[in-house]
Description:
Layout: E1 7-15, H1 19-27, H2 29-32, E2 42-48, E3 55-61, E4 68-78, E5 82-89, E6 99-107, E7 113-122, H3 125-149
Amino acid sequence: MTQDGLLRLRMERAFPVAPGVVFQALTDPVELAKWWGPDGFSIPRGESDLRPGGAYRIEMQPPEGGSFFLTGEFLEVEPPALLSYTFRWEDPDPEDRETIVVLELHGDGTGSTRLVFVQLGFATEGRLALHDEGWTQGFDKLEGLLRARGPDAP
């Protein structure tokens, strides 16, 4: 828990491509579908109005069972350095509430990017841990995808 009383998840990752390539992978629904979510999940559909105040909706399909949906609103969109949005589940678990996601992208001058990820406002430690696992697995897939493209990826 932080000083402001909010449960917060924070991660840093390094990617071997420029910030613009990472930003596109974080925001383009076609690119997002290639890496988003925990292992075994697929993204049959994603919609995005990428602008402050614009909405997004992502359909997530687990390995077993029916799809569920994630939705929210973009708060800040500053390519290729900053993206923030609300994050809420449709038909949420009783322990869920809307959280805020902030992604900062920092180029290192050599064509690589350091991503600083924060998600804040969790209702319980259990929900934070669930998101920690999901984001870790998703970012692992994103790293593999970007490594395969190489440093000169468009």
